[in-house]
Amino acid sequence: MDDVAFLKEWINKKNKEGMTNLDARLILNEFEQFLKYIFNSIQDGISILDKDLNILGTNLSMEIWYEHKKPFLGKKCFEIYHDRNSPCKNCPTINTIKTGKSMIHTIKYKTPNNKEGWHELFTFPLFDDQNNVISIIEYVRDITQRKKVEVISEKLKKRLHLQAQTLQEQETVLKYLFKQKEKEQNIIADNVMSNINLLIKPIIYDLKIKLKGNPAQESLNVLESYLDKVTQPFSNINKLNSNLYNLTAKEIQVASLIMEGKTSKNISSILGISIKAVDFHRANIRKKLKIKNNKINLQNYLLKL
To answer: What is the rounded average pLDDT of the residues 93-104?
Structure first.
């Protein structure tokens, strides 16, 4: 994402507080690369909007999907994405701005070839220090194929009804559809959390160590709190993040990777620490979770919390 004006403004403020120009340039460059890598590694579409529905930035997927609408930074989302002159009816982004809560909505769209498709849109608010909504993240996934399956399934339901199939057979079809939909929603949540835990959190953790004692560390803490608020609705490790178990940031990283089935060798490679250090964190996690029986599988235990 090219628009990092908010970060540049922050660097200017920190310069006034005593940071050297070299410090500012290094941190600015690191964050620019960090944001571009994270956003462009996600295959679904991401847009960042201000409270007036102006597009502040997008990831590479959105640029590819709407190549025919470029340039669109600074323009209204409904103008670029929906060919409208006014906000969409029941716009989930507007509802998020009003309520401060995440929303999910299914919307139709037209391809450049005038074919019909469907998007599943998730909206997440970002807050300032006074808990006011300052911008919105739109996370878009193309579900056209899933909708086509649902249409076919709906036709199948009608045929089953006309053929006087038993209630049990109809319920079986419905249960399968609901299960498939739930599975896809879980995949979305898992992908988002995996990107956050494997790509973003380790970088923030390392930067906090590098900037210990530096005024810039406070802004990192704010960024980390924003990430926690965005991911809170579908985080699998909310309980581990709480003070209930008193886990350190590194222990939470290790625990989240264990939950994903990663081995000590995998975790060592991902976090850049030794296998011995990983085993040390595993032992601490067991101790803090009061797992006294060594035969208990740590991954299964964490997943059941």
So the answer is: 92
Six token digits for residue 117: 């498709």
What is the reported pTM? 0.43
- Separation of alpha carbons 225 and 216, rounded Å: 15
Which residues contact residue 278 at a Cβ distance below 8 angstroms, ignoring those fewer than 6 apart? 254, 264, 267, 268, 271
CATH (residue range 201-303): 1.10.10.10
pLDDT of res. 8: 46
Closest CA to 260 of 181, 190, 180, 182: 190
Cα(258)–Cα(275) distance, integer angstroms: 13
- Tell me how many degrees the CA angle 128-193-205 measures, rounded to the nearest 5: 65
Helix (H) or strand (E) holding 254: helix 249-259
Judged against a pLDDT cut of 90, whether residue 17 lies above it is answered with no
Give tens-digit pLDDT for 129-159: 788 888 888 999 888 888 888 888 888 777 7
Q: Where are the domains of the chain?
A: 5-147, 201-303
Instruction: Give the architecture-level CATH label for domain 5-147.
Output: 2-Layer Sandwich (3.30)
133-142/116-127 β-pairing: antiparallel
Please give the radius of gyration of the chain, using alpha carbons only, rounded to the nearest integer: 23
